[in-house]
What does this fold into?
Amino acid sequence: MASPKKKLQGLVAATITPMTEHGEINFSVIGRYVDYLVEEQGVKSIFVNGTTGEGLSLSISERRQVAEEWVTQGRNKLDQVVIHVGALSLKESQELARHAAEIGADGIAVIAPFFLKPGNKDVLINFLKEVAAAAPALPFYYYHIPALTGVKIRAEELLDRIQEKIPTFQGLKFSDTDLLDFGQCVDQNRQRQFALLFGVDE
It folds into this structure.
């Protein structure tokens, strides 16, 4: 079972992807961004290429480059760099997962596929399992954001016995306003020490 160097907890910054005025990624500011988070905000864990980082609007090549830059600039400064590797294509998601492992990321996260949506918990877990298996040494997190994916499978239902299918599963980023669902995730999983990140800042 994968185990992070430190438990993912506290504030985790969902980073933006800095761009130039010509729509190119501005890699030159990521080092300063890391320093700002650590020194000015006291934040030492980040979530890269997620919704705030507009990862799904980037090409696979761009996502790889952004992930590499955050891992490189965060080395010896950040505690955890979690890379979102979700994609509509299973093969692309697996490619990004393998790449995250190769560059030394601390974990990967995946949203539910949102074009041809999984119809039930088992279909969704099978998709997640295939992605997690591409990076078997990395902690794996499910990124639950039904407002954007349209996948309404409750997180609490998904967590039930998920580690039997995905041994590297460490928790979820819960970006939804259903506080009953989130509360049940917390109440019913105390013994398993999952990292349950709440991602609706408002």
